[in-house]
Write the structure tokens for this entry.
Amino acid sequence: MAYRGIFFDLYGTLLVFGDMHAAWADWLSALHRCLADCGLRMERQRLAVHCDGFFSRPDPPPCAGLSIFERRIRVLSAELGLELGPRQICRTAECCVQAWQSYVTLDPDALPVLRALQRTTTLALVSNYDHPPFARRLLSLLGLDRLFEAIVISGEVGIRKPDPAIFRLALDATRLDPGEVAYVGDTSDDMQGARAAGMHPILIYRNSRNPSHVLHDFHPDGQLVAIHTHAKPCAPRCIAALPELVTMR
């Protein structure tokens, strides 16, 4: 019996990473420019040290109207002796995200595969992302949003993969039982969380010299931190293999 639902991760699965060394360098440059406009008197390389592990730090306390990413910028700015207003924080966040996103592209097979699956299967998206407003706009721009019956973003719901609770939100929204659903992702968090939620994990394993399994974080030494995913031989290496795979249950 084929799956009644196929749920997807976003980054590294439907979206493909490019040159992430350059992406993080441009992210830092965008952050430095914006903070300099707000009064920062610090060289870019000194700022880089302050940003080490920027996204791995504990989530800042809630602040009305600000995403987790924007709150991180607010905390960093305060540590640097700056007091940014909401508009300055929003502008800084958008500039940084846009700089980084320019190195991430939609898998060319993603739309055709999703449209094919949508004809017979309920689709949903479950993504870890700290700046949901940008993710929502990007999904709309790429034409992905209307393909999913449910979209669950960690920054909106306050739960992150691999916590199985974030998967259950998508299951509740689609009224599907976990045993009827496969979850397609590219990291160990994806596989671990989906399995804990009772779903069937499918690992997208891209074998490339340019690693796609990287932590979404900045490190001043420019090192990409690999997430080791133990792919089984049957793990598909591309999105295009999914339609046949999910009907051979």
